[in-house]
Amino acid sequence: MTVTTTRPAPRKVRAPHPLRAEAVRGFAPVAGLAVLVTLGIALSATSANWQGGWAETAGTLHTSMLILLPMAAAAGCWQGGRERRRRTAELWGTAVRPPLTRLLASALPVALWAALGHLLAVAAALLATWPYAMGDHPRLDLVPGDTAALMAAALIGHVAGRAVPTVLAAPVLGVVGYVGLGLLSHSDAEGSPLSPAAYVGAGFRPVWWQPFAMAGWTLGLALALTLAHAARRRVTALLPLAAALASGALLVHTGSGVFQTDPLTRRQVCDTSVTPAVCVNARYAGLLPRTTDALSGVTGKLRGVRNLPVRWEDHPGRPHDDEAQLPSVTPLGWSVVRGRLTDPQAYASEAVAMLRGDCETSSVRVARADDAVSAYLAPSPAQDDFDRQDAKGDAAHRADLRARLAARAKLAAMDERQRRAWLSAYFASRPHCAVKGVPSL
Q: Most buried among 38, 97, 278, 398, using CB within 10 Å?
């Protein structure tokens, strides 16, 4: 009796997909890491200017495309010249796969990794802003267009790397791309709506279709160049080219209208429990308690005083007749850093100056009254330094200092009723810049 044994049929081992092989090894992950690190360094260096403001965070991320797009193009260009550097271009020319498939298998991983690095940096920036957010909500309007432009830059760079037979193609493309993008992104340039790195102010938002048009413009150009370079039927490049031209024409025709004023900038949130009321822009609603607290010393001393403005306001344009302008908190990084006032005393002093009105006068009497009011309500942090300089000056400066100190002392020595009456008369005249109505000290 014979026993026969059958061996199991050998399993077919599938070769890894070329796109997967390129994506997990080689230069593509390095390119994505470079995008992530570069954007991370740029954000860290300017964190005081955007942390706490969602619009500022979105604007900083968008402006960083001025650096990231040339970097992605240079990375794609370096990847595109790989076969020529390895001297395997002729060997790949004999492969079964068509040229377009080989190109995409090499180019797409760099584009995808660059996009992934960008999205990770965006997520990190949003998380860094969230603990200090002063109002508004996360702004993601520009992210799709920026990510699409980054992928398009990598694809265009890859085609350039295959077409230009020199090792210097990548750095030259990066430098030329940076300069060209900077010129195109200038607000006065006619083609600025076509720039993926055009400056967007914190008080503006793109129209809803702008990210899609920008993606159509950039990716359309990239796909058209890719198909024209590697497709068997190059006429197929006309379809993405037509989409790119249509998207670009829409952006150029709309012009500066692609970015419109954010409706939130026209709204205010107010604390009416004090007089004058304190109103801050709705984009920074979370800053209202800190602002009210910084001005509490001023509003406490003004309790019972008549003829005051109704409120401190913080909306675009000049204040109304019954309002006073609140000191600006923008751009972030100066008076406000990460949701906090950097110098509440200086902020209160500026608010008092705004409360007095925008009047210029050569009257010494009025100037001394202004100085006394400022010193009583909220003295400037630099006031002592100015006084010391005048004390070391000539006789005229010393005499003026003595007169100012006497006026400050006289106002501070008044009883409550007398001082309220004096301040009421003072604020009745200052908004109209009337010199005669200002009471003397």
A: 278
Cross-strand pairs, 279: 270
pLDDT band at residue 1 using 50, 70 and 90 as cut-offs? very low
Rounded to two decimals, what is the model's pTM? 0.87
> DSSP letters along 118-153, please?
HHHHHHHHHHHHGGG--SS----TTHHHHHHHHHHH
276 upstream amide cis, omega within 30 of 0: yes
Instruction: Tell me the angle at which helices 169-185 and 143-163 cross, rounded to the nearest 10 degrees.
Output: 140
324-341 pLDDT per residue, tens = 999 989 888 889 999 999
Q: How many residues does the chain have?
A: 441
Both tokens of 190, joined, read: 């006619």
The residue among 28, 56, 60 whose CA lies nearest residue 329 is 56
SS3 11: coil
pLDDT at 132 over 70: yes
- Rounded CA separation 21/18 (Å): 5
Tell me the average pLDDT of the chain. Answer: 87
